[in-house]
Write a structure and sequence with these properties.
Layout lengths: L29 H10 L14 E2 L11 H9 L8 H14 L3 E5 L2 H12 L5 E4 L4 H9 L3 E4 L20 H10 L2 E7 L12 H14 L3 E4 L3 H11 L8 H10 L3 E5 L10 E5 L2 H14 L10 H13 L3 H21 L11 E5 H4 L9 H13 L1 E2 L1 E3 L1 H4 L15 E5 L7 H17 L7 E5 L10 E4 L1
Parallel strand pairs: 1-10, 3-4, 3-5, 5-6, 6-7
Antiparallel strand pairs: 2-8, 7-8, 9-12, 11-12, 13-14
Helix pairs in contact: 1-14, 2-11, 3-11, 4-5, 4-10, 6-7, 8-9, 12-16, 14-16
The site of pyridoxal-5'-phosphate (PLP) has 14 residues, from α4 and α5.
Length: 463
């Protein structure tokens, strides 16, 4: 018999892990969800998790840890200062980010706050491809003006483009020449704008402009591994380069970064800052001791540091990244087949529905994305997140509202938590919801909101 020794290639994509421990899902009825939603004032952040069937609210801190991470928890050294866990964490971070100083924090937003505060004396503006909500809130509280300069393709939600997360370089150049800029922040990938990646070329050119104008270049890098995978797939010179090498190259262009470890850190809590500048590091540590804790734990337990040390490495494994991005694409392709208007192409951690197009009869003033999310939850138990005017609009002093350029419903996929059949359920739920209910929705009215990060606590009523 002539048996071929070639490695067989199979088309079926499987999760590159086996499941050792499971959590139950509670199946409630529409009638029950209607009451839950009313009690939560139509705000899905206020809905108890037990009342959710499939939870796509966020990919932040919601992932499943590996058996290796769980076993490393026992190794956690809980010494107040100089714990072994800190050194393992620091080594792991430095093996990727390759910056001399590493400052742990309890999560990403404290890393943002501490780093941006030290940069405050340098200028009035923060320029970005697009800041995420917590970064924006921290920057505003610190008194910065914010200039989001996404590339022109970003606004064409229905067109495909490889790197919609790019910053607009000519606009950046003008801003750096004309304004007093404290720092430039590139969010990789761009969470507020469809989870779209930033190219290595754009990162490199941003770094050149920042150097020319003497302005620090910061990466908001919580999805650095997903961004590295997109660079590998879409920028030909990186085709044969490993995700680790790509990540190192990305960080080599930056002066500093802040990272929420709850995404590609594959941990349920944690964050950190990396810097090259010793003086700025000392300033960060001074703030850290007052607000987070000693610089070798920064608000985290030793066991959290162990989980992050391993998680950062696991996020860069090719089999994982191939599955991760394909998993998001699977959901994207199925929803596209149904005919849903999606931000094109699929993001790294999420699929985004363009609610202005999905609910064209609802004006922006009636918050179509919030309305879609709330309606879908009541209909199916699928929880999603509004990324639109509730999150990014503002109430002006005269009581009138400003609205965001996009009204998106984000379906964020927690890492290693759901399977392909869960995604099939989500697609069936959305397809039926859109067919049967969308036309009868009229929008929502915001009846109460806080001045900062209002999407977490605002109250709504159906129109
Ligand atoms: C791009 C980006 N930056 C910063 C953060 C804040 O991180 P954390 O939730 O750990 O405070 C998030 C969280 O979702 C994010 O997506």
């Amino acid at each position: 018999m002539n048996i071929s020794k070639k490695e067989p290639v199979f088309k079926t994509l499987i999760e590159p892990f086996k499941i050792k421990s499971v959590e139950p899902i509670f199946f409630n009825t529409r009638e029950q969800r209607k009451k839950v939603l009313e009690a939560a004032h139509l705000n899905l952040f206020l809905v108890p998790a037990k009342e959710v069937i499939i939870d796509l609210l966020t990919d932040s801190g919601t992932g499943a840890m590996s058996a290796n991470q769980w076993s490393a928890l026992l190794r956690g050294d809980e010494s107040y200062s100089g714990s072994e866990s800190f050194f393992r964490f620091q080594n792991s971070v430095q093996s990727i980010m390759e910056m001399p100083h590493v400052v742990p924090t309890h999560q990403g937003r404290s890393a943002e706050r501490i780093l941006l505060k030290t940069l405050k004396p340098r200028g009035e503006y923060i320029v970005s491809n697009m800041l995420f909500d917590t970064t924006r809130a921290n920057a505003e509280i610190l008194g910065f003006n914010i200039l989001d300069l996404p590339c022109p393709e970003f606004y064409q939600t229905q067109e495909d483009f490889d790197f919609k997360g790019n910053i607009n370089l000519p606009d950046l150049e003008s801003a750096l020449s004309e304004k007093s800029v404290a720092c430039v922040v590139l969010t990789v990938t761009n969470n507020s704008g469809g989870g779209q990646p930033v190219s290595m070329e754009n990162i490199k050119n941003t770094s050149i402009l920042c150097k020319k104008h003497g302005v620090p270049f910061v990466l908001d890098a919580c999805r650095f591994a997903e961004n590295s995978w997109f660079i590998k797939q879409r920028e030909s010179e990186y085709k044969n380069v490993s995700p680790l090498q790509i990540a190192r190259k990305m960080f080599s262009y930056a002066d500093m970064c802040f990272v929420s470890a709850k995404k590609d850190g594959m941990a349920n809590i944690g964050g950190f800052i990396c810097l090259r500048d010793t003086k700025l590091t000392e300033e960060c540590k001074r703030d850290l001791i007052v607000s987070e804790g000693f610089p070798t734990y920064g608000g985290l337990a030793g066991r959290d540091l162990e989980a992050i040390a391993l998680g950062l490495q696991e996020a860069l494994e090719e089999s994982y990244l191939h599955y991760r991005i394909s998993f998001v694409e699977y959901l994207y392709n199925k929803l596209k087949q149904i005919g849903l208007p999606l931000v094109r192409p699929a993001g790294g951690h999420a699929v985004y529905i363009d609610a202005k197009l999905a609910l064209p009869h609802i004006p922006v003033s009636a918050y179509p994305a919030q309305c879609f999310s709330a309606g879908l939850y009541e209909f199916s138990g699928v929880r999603t997140c509004e990324i639109g005017s509730v999150m990014f609009g503002r109430e002006k002093k005269d009581g009138t509202q400003t609205f965001h350029s996009q009204e998106l419903v984000r379906l964020a996929l927690p890492r290693r938590v759901y399977t392909f059949s869960h995604l099939d359920y989500v697609c069936e739920a959305i397809e039926t919801f859109v067919k049967k209910e969308a036309a009868s929705l009229k929008g929502v009215k915001m009846i109460r909101s806080a001045s900062v990060l209002r999407h977490f606590s605002a109250h709504f009523e159906w129109l």
